Amino acid sequence: MSTKFKARSGERRHARLVVEKDFQYRFTLLICLVGGGLFAFFSGLLLYFLKLNYETFIQEAVIQFPDVVSNLRREYRMLSLYVIASFVAMVTALFFLGLVLTHRIAGPLYALKRQLLNFATGQCGVRLELRNADEFRNLEDVFNNAMKEHDHRTKQEITQLEQVTDVLKKSKDTEAAKTLDDYLQQKKKALDPTSGPRA
Question: For the segment 92-135, what is each residue's pLDDT rounded down to a tens digit?
């Protein structure tokens, strides 16, 4: 039975939220820029009109209610600080939300890249597992089906090589049989790392 080399896109999720820095930071900063820009624009308009209204109230209060002036000014400052704090909180939330969303895109691609590197080293039984929340879920089926087909062809090659090795041994061509048998063991080890040399 072959040993499977599985890669989950959620491995080290808490330790490595950022797996593709260029893509994730660029996309996240774009979200922050657009969201922060819109918020700054509309909150700026809001503060501008609030300032006009408060200045009108203060001018009236100076004449009729002098004691209320300091309260109105303090209230306007509090509203301004609230808007600024809301802006900072929103940009921070957008930043972390952007990292989480981009991780659902970059995570599967990162896992796929690692498994392709494993496959490039000659490993068989390579499989890809994605989380339910990940994007590109169809990659899992496509990749795993391709790997199953490759494993199946490798098993067929091993069977054919075993037959050829037996023929060479019977024909007393021991040197060619040994060379082919060494190659055969390498193929078996790639398919199943626990397999040892034939007795």
Answer: 999 999 999 998 888 888 888 889 998 888 777 889 888 888 88
Distance CA 160, CA 168 (A): 12
pLDDT at 25: 92
Residues in the chain: 199
Residue 92 lies in a domain: yes
- Domain-embedded: residue 186: yes
- The total domain count for the chain is 1
Average pLDDT, the chain: 82
Smallest CA-to-CA distance from 104 within 156, 27, 196 is with 27
pLDDT by residue (tens digit) across 59-91? 888 777 778 888 888 888 999 999 999 999 999
At CB < 8 A and 24+ separation, what contacts does 30-37 make?
A: 31/94, 31/95, 31/97, 31/98, 32/91, 32/94, 32/95, 32/98, 35/90, 35/91, 35/94, 36/87, 36/90, 36/91, 36/94
Q: Is the dihedral of CA 95, 97, 100, 102 positive or negative?
A: negative
* Domain coverage including residue 114: 5-191
Residue 174 maps to a domain:
yes
The total of other beta-carbon atoms located within 10 Å of residue 184's CB is 20
Q: Which two tokens stand for residue 191?
A: 């398919």
